[in-house]
């Protein structure tokens, strides 16, 4: 009986996280209410509150799911990479899955970022996500340039990634994932090319 109950609870948590994720993408952070999540999952909002004691706890689960999807794609690309430069490309492309780089998803993420600050659990999780991105970039870039320039490029790339997601919330932004990736790749190539030129300080 205990095993069955545990299995049912796992399934319910999984279903609620999926419902919360879809609700987040549709309505953003502020519109991700327990009532809407419950309705989408076919459960009462009381059951949602039973499994997740606070909205922040549920948002954390949603963000972990979203980042897991991105990390899955990135990991697959990293496994296929055959050089340090290709690994940099893998990390960049992994942050812009074509099926996720949409205006609706971008707006949902911006609503989440605007909620950071004063929410310790979310802040800690976002710092971990940012650190993982920097670590993945630095691991590859250190094989191409010195540590100082590697960190500078990694920081710029992280800013560009966030910036393109923010820009994509605008109704007139027609740039797709492939174009964004190409633009960031051009920046990285320019930085690496400059570092290879004699007499140029990094």
Can you walk through the features of this model?
The protein is mainly alpha-helical and 202 residues long. It has 2 domains: 1-53, Arc Repressor Mutant, subunit A, CATH 1.10.10.60; 63-196, Tetracycline Repressor, domain 2 (Orthogonal Bundle). The chain has 9 helices and no strands. The longest helix is centred in the first third of the chain and has 26 residues, at 2-27. The mean pLDDT is 88.
Mean pLDDT: 88
Helical segment count:
9
Q: Could you please say which CATH topology of the largest domain applies here?
A: Tetracycline Repressor, domain 2
What is the CA–CA distance across the termini? 64 Å
Write a concise synopsis of the structure shown.
This protein is mostly helical. It has nine helices and no strands. Helix 4 (55-80) runs parallel beside helix 7 and helix 7 packs across helix 8.
Secondary structure: elements and pairs:
Elements (H helix, E strand, L loop, with lengths): L1 H26 L6 H8 L3 H7 L3 H26 L3 H11 L8 H13 L4 H22 L5 H21 L9 H20 L6
Helix pairs in contact: 1-2, 1-4, 1-6, 2-3, 4-5, 4-7, 5-7, 7-8, 8-9
How would you describe this structure in keywords?
elongated; 76% helix; 202 residues; Arc Repressor Mutant, subunit A; mainly alpha
